[in-house]
Amino acid sequence: MAKTILAVDDSSSLRQMVAFSLKAAGYLVIEAVDGQDGLEKAKLHNVDLVLTDQNMPRMDGLALIQLLRALPAYQKVPILMLTTESSDEMKSKGRAAGANGWLVKPFDPQRLIEVVKKVIG
Amino acid sequence: MTRKKILGSHVKRLLSGVSEHGRKHLNEVEADLRQTGMLLEEAVDKLTCSFMAIHDAVGARQAGINLLLAGGTPGDDEIARMQAMSGEIGVHVNCAITSMQFQDMTSQLIDRTLKRVTGLRVFLGTIGTHSEGVNAETGSEEIVELLGKVSMALAIQSLELRSVLRKAVNQQHLESGDIELF
Q1: Which of A20, A107, A115 to mutate to test the interface with B (most CBs of B within 10 A)?
Q2: Domains in chain B, number
Q3: Which of A22, A81, A86, B30 has a CA that sits 20 to 30 A from residue B153's CA?
Q4: Paired sense of beta strands A49-52 and A28-32, if any
Q5: What domain range includes position B129?
Q6: Residue A19: which domain range?
Q7: Chain B contact for A20 (CB, 8 A cutoff)
Q8: What is the pTM assigned to this prediction?
């Protein structure tokens, strides 16, 4: 059965690119427009991986990760940040919040798929 | 210090404050706009290349495609090239997808610029608001006090504006970013 990825980003074009790339590799993709929407959709669906942006309205990526990690169902689910942020300080915050990896935008579809396969198969 | 000197000193402080804060913010506006321009230019260049490459890849196989449509059978070489076409186009599509992400980055830069410009408008409006209390009869001590308040208010506003406008987009090019698994 295809693995499901929750893609969280306030940029609709970015979500389109992520969904296009991951669907082409055989994954199911659920899109969310910001952290709040991501949290709600994570509670509604069984997700194998969360891929989230950092800077979003209503709820940012770090807040989303912290809230997901507080949910029993999401304590072990891999969460990757996909963001324009590249500072060591932000990466440390992401790691401390519970992220399993940090991808700096722009992403290359082939590399994205390789990382996702490495993380969830 | 004489009243005149105190007043002069406050006027100087206010004017240099407005100039300095304004200059710093406008430097950031300029930097963000230049970065936006660079990313847009690179995106258009790369998307044009991807589009042309995909067009060429398909065009190179057009004779074989036409033969198939006419019910013919292309030679082994042509079949191998047609089978490879999917992978070839895939490479160009991936390049285009990376380039398309210019929209996300430039959108953030433009948003940051707009917020800064709005903040600067408020900043300059503060001067106008405070000046409403000044008229021909206003004493120099009141003016000195007012100038002090305005300088302080402007400094605080400028700092607050800078603090909410963290630079989240430092990309100067559209090369794919680093990946780190913890």
Answers
A1: A107
A2: 1
A3: B30
A4: unpaired
A5: 3-164
A6: 4-120
A7: yes
A8: 0.88
